[in-house]
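Friendly challenge for the regulars: who can give me the structure tokens for this chain first? No prize, just bragging rights.
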Amino acid sequence: MAAAPDSVPLLDVIIPAYNEEQSIGRVLAEIPAGLVREVVVVDNNSTDRTGEAARAGGATVLREPRPGYGHACLAGIAHCLSRPPQEQPDIFVFLDGDYSDYPADMTALVAPLLRREADLVIGSRALGQREAGSMLPQQVFGNWLATTLLRWLYGARFTDLGPFRAIRREALQRIGMRDTTYGWTVEMQLKAAKLGMRSVEVPVRYRRRIGVSKVSGTVRGTLGAGYKILWTIFRYL
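First reply, four minutes later:
Bragging rights claimed.
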């Protein structure tokens, strides 16, 4: 059941996290006070104290032993939707746990949803301010290639596949997310385009992450992510 027009929408945050013990507490501390009902950190089979650090920061912590960004996101969604219908979130926000995003930008990110002007909002690093070195050349090129293909093949005008995003519950349920690994972000965006949803981007800031990226920081991760993103784009044609 959607929130009544005169009620305050319920907003839950899902943070997939794998070995983010050093950063997760800082991420949680900077989430705007009073905006969010629940923060769910999905510990994606970490080998460090990510879960303990997240719990100490006030988050609800889930353990998802199956590796994969999508697995973690799906586990967080299932948790939020396990509530009675009237207590389910109206808006989902997805945020990384490595401190590369600025949680304070969440207020601007969800504003188009609160004004009911959009169904999906992508935080665009391409439109925002990026700290030098925060995105590696392969990330910049990969984003350009993927968003160009989305425009050519689906008519979807995005500048980024950024993980910092917000979506209305009804839109998320219509999309029916399936990807369990690297194709998660692009699947959401291309399905939103195919379904004719209102998608917008807002500029967000981006900085060097704490620690080494599990994706762009390795050759294997970079190639695996690139293949899966391209496969996902063509799969849904």
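The first helix runs from residue 24 to 29. The chain has one domain: 11-235. Your move, everyone else.
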